[in-house]
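Put briefly, the fold is written as integer tokens. One such record reads:
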Amino acid sequence: MSERFDQIREFYQSDSTSAGILRDLVSVAKILLVFAILSQILFGTWAPMRAIESGSMEPHMKKGDIVFIQDMSRTRVVTQEDGAISGYKSFGDYGNVILYQKYGRTDVTPIIHRAMYYVEAGEPMWEGGPIAPHAGYITKGDNEITNRQYDQYNLCTEPIREEWVIGVARFRVPYAGYVRLAFSKVIEILTGKS
């Protein structure tokens, strides 16, 4: 047993390049394991992060930011309309920013926009707008230049059903998502999907 400890001590004290790289990889693996356990405890999901891929949420979230998402089993959605009444704000405006699957589809990139208000089936989706085919959230990006209309106008023409909502954005890390976005772009080029 003491021979095993001597080998471990020698490994951690070695000046060789390969031992240094291996020590770094072991350290990263430990950090990832701790992060995975903490994310499951705090957010209710093993992978609670999303990289922002567009400017649709500027100025509150920027392309390249990493956003931590809390699973819906651990939270509830506060719309902008309800947040304005209660005073609840997140990411610079009233209500929650949600991550949702467009039409509930898992084969497309999820959308991260603010939940503006909730409509029931048969109500107009907005004043003078089409009738909601089912209950759900009306959503919109925060960027007033690129998002002048609700998502339901053309991005996802139905209210966002509660079961389509993956989670609620809780905090962001600026620029940390650029590595992930660059890696995704390389994969697209290599697979011919760009």
